[in-house]
Amino acid sequence: MLTVAAFFVAWAATSAWLGQVLPFPDAAFVRAKVEKLAQHGDDYDILFVGSSRIHYEIEPAVFDRTLGELDVTARSFNAGVVAMRCPEDGYYLEQLLRCPHQRLKWVFFELMPVTEADLVLRGTERNTYWRDGKRTWLLTQHFSSQMADTWSRSGLWTRDWPKKFSVSARLAGAWLEDVTLCAENLSQFGRGWPLLEQKLAPSTKRASAPKRDLVGDGWVSPSTVKPLIQDEKRRAKYERAYAALLAERQRFDAGDAVSFEAVHAKIDLLKSAGITPLLIVPPTVAAKRYLPASVASETSAIMDFSESTKCPELFAVENRLDEDHLSASGAEIFSQALAREFVGRLRKSAQKPPATGL
Questions:
Q1: What interhelical angle do 133-152 and 161-187 show, nearest 10?
Q2: What is the pLDDT of residue 9?
Q3: What is the side-by-side strand order in the sheet with 302-304?
Q4: Fewer CB within 10 Å: N-end or C-end of the chain?
Q5: Cβ-based neighbours of 39, under 8 Å, separated by 6 or more
Q6: Residue 332 pLDDT more than 70?
Q7: What is the pLDDT of residues 101-134, one digit of tens each?
Q8: For the whole model, what pTM was predicted?
Q9: 239: nearest Cα among 225, 252, 226, 229
């Protein structure tokens, strides 16, 4: 018994040590931005964090220029990441705050509920690197909430019980995968090679490093597909979704208690670091946008661009790629609108920027 206990203690200690000394995992899109901020984090006053709706849609150069036109000087960095979901975003935010950030005063982050990871990332480092005990516990709570909701609808034994079992089996499978990936990540299994390579061939490491520093200000043009205005089928689909948005009275999804907890954890993390959190609801025409009423009532730091009458240009066909994403022209408009609203809030609160920036 003592031998088994000693083994697990040694395993846990070794895994923890490896987690401290190993290079940051080679997670797609994430590693480049973490390494950029590890080197230049003190250069920025503002960070933007979220999914592709942030990564592709907020241009720091446009945002900063608009601030300058309104007599506010600041430098921002787009730390958004494609396919980012909650709770990965919470872990990612913690890593960003470990980077130098002496000037950092504001972090804009996208409001997102707890969801399963994108299936496109399955089998990649992106699907594993963030799975620690805290994030796995959130997913476990989310799983329990979904299971309870599945079996509480229409009673326990109804004619749709086969569907309930099917949904339950899928949820249980996803949860078991979450737990397995957490164990794999915490064990640091297979991650010793990068450290050995770094020690044995440091010149190779130095030669490849500059390539990962090509993230610039973090923004990437979203124009990777045929513009919506040039594709009749996609345009018709978008126009139907937009019409449904205009007809929908209840635009928001309150999510569950676990998602609410995850949002508050990010807010508390930023505030404890002396940073002001600002929450963004991007301009999407999805049937439901995540914004719990309890969050909306507790904070005025929510910038909701999902209301089509607020900035109609963001919903014009010529400025869209699809229901969820803006085109390059839309990203420019969004960046300008976000900067103007930000400055308006600063002035409303009579908060004056210091001489070195915001």
A1: 180
A2: 39
A3: 76-78, 46-49, 106-110, 276-281, 302-304
A4: N
A5: 213
A6: yes
A7: 999 999 999 999 999 888 889 889 999 999 999 9
A8: 0.84
A9: 229
The yes/no answer on whether domain 2-131+202-348 falls in CATH 3.40.50.1110 is yes
The domain ranges of the chain are 2-131+202-348
What percent of the chain clears pLDDT 70, i.e. is strictly above it?
80
What are the beta bridge partners of residue 253? Answer: 290
**Closest alpha carbon to 106 in 340, 301, 310:** 301
The rounded distance, in Å, linking the Cα atoms of 282 and 279 is 10
Q: How far is residue 159 from each of residues 150, 153, 164, 165, measured CA to CA in Å? A: 14, 12, 10, 12
b/e 65-100 (16+ beta carbons within 10 angstroms → b): ebbeeeebebbbbbbbbbbbbbbbbbbbbbbbbebe
- What gap in Å lies between CA 192 and CA 128, rounded to an integer? 16
SS3 of the chain: CHHHHHHHHHHHHHHHHHHHHCCCCCCCCHHHHHHHHHHHHHHCCEEEECCHHHHCCCCHHHHHHHHHHCCCCCCEEECCCCCCCECHHHHHHHHHHHCCCCCCCEEEEECCCECCCCHHHCCCHHHCCCCCHHHHHHHHHHHHHHHHHHHHCCCCCCCCHHHHHHHHHHHHHHHHHHHHHHHHHHHCCCCHHHHHHHHHCHHHHHHHHHHHHCCCCCCCCCCCCCCHHHCHHHHHHHHHHHHHHHHCCCCEECCCHHHHHHHHHHHHHHHHCCCEEEEEECCCCCCCEECCHHHHHHCCCEEECCCCCCCHHHHCHHHECCCCCECHHHHHHHHHHHHHHHHHHHHHCCCCCCCCCC
Task: List, in sequence order, every residue forming a beta bridge with 76; answer none if it has no partner.
Answer: 46
* Planar angle of CA 225, 212, 75, nearest 5 degrees: 80
Q: H/E/C letters for each residue in 41-99?
A: HHHCCEEEECCHHHHCCCCHHHHHHHHHHCCCCCCEEECCCCCCCECHHHHHHHHHHHC
By C-alpha distance, which of 232, 256, 222, 252 is closest to 324?
222
Tokens of 6: 């000693």
Residue with tokens 């083994």: 7
